[in-house]
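WARN retry 2 of 3 for item q-0093 after timeout on previous attempt; input resubmitted unchanged.
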Amino acid sequence: MDLSTTDYRKTTRIDRFWAATVLKLIPYSFKPNYLTMVRLILIPFVVLLLALQIYDFGLALFAFAALTDTWDGAMARTRDQITEWGKMFDPLADKLLIGSTAILIIPKYFSFTVAMLIIALEVMLIAEAIYLKKSKGKAIQALPVGKIKMVLQSFGVGLLLLHLIFPVFWVFPLAAALIYISIGFAVASLVVYRSI
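OK item q-0093 returned
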């Protein structure tokens, strides 16, 4: 399917930006679900690098894994390749990536309680998605509030990792603000899911 036949009402400006740039390098035979699988495969390597305190490579791999989230969503929407599997496993991959990095990085700067709160909210969101799938009979697509949460979490955790490598004075306050705002969006996501 070429972009001229894409229903742009279902895409965002970011989707269209990726479709006009990075996604042009990816053949149509490479499906969005493959990128989700790549992200799932990368998570243990990100965790290993962070656990070994190899933060420069850990940050690079984390950033790439987080980018695959925007790419697979953009690819699915602009190429009309949305699947039930992707609706379920794309957000699961996001939550595993954020949860596993949060448990390793967040306690270095915040209390362990903050890390556990982030993980607890992610677990509740997974449980809610599973419940909705069983009760509604189909997977619920990612909602805008959840996408914003993931972006905030990714930048927040990424900036914390950057601060470990280059402790510039302004990086930590910005990272902390993004982390706390993302917690608010996680709560909002849960409220929205429960209203569906």
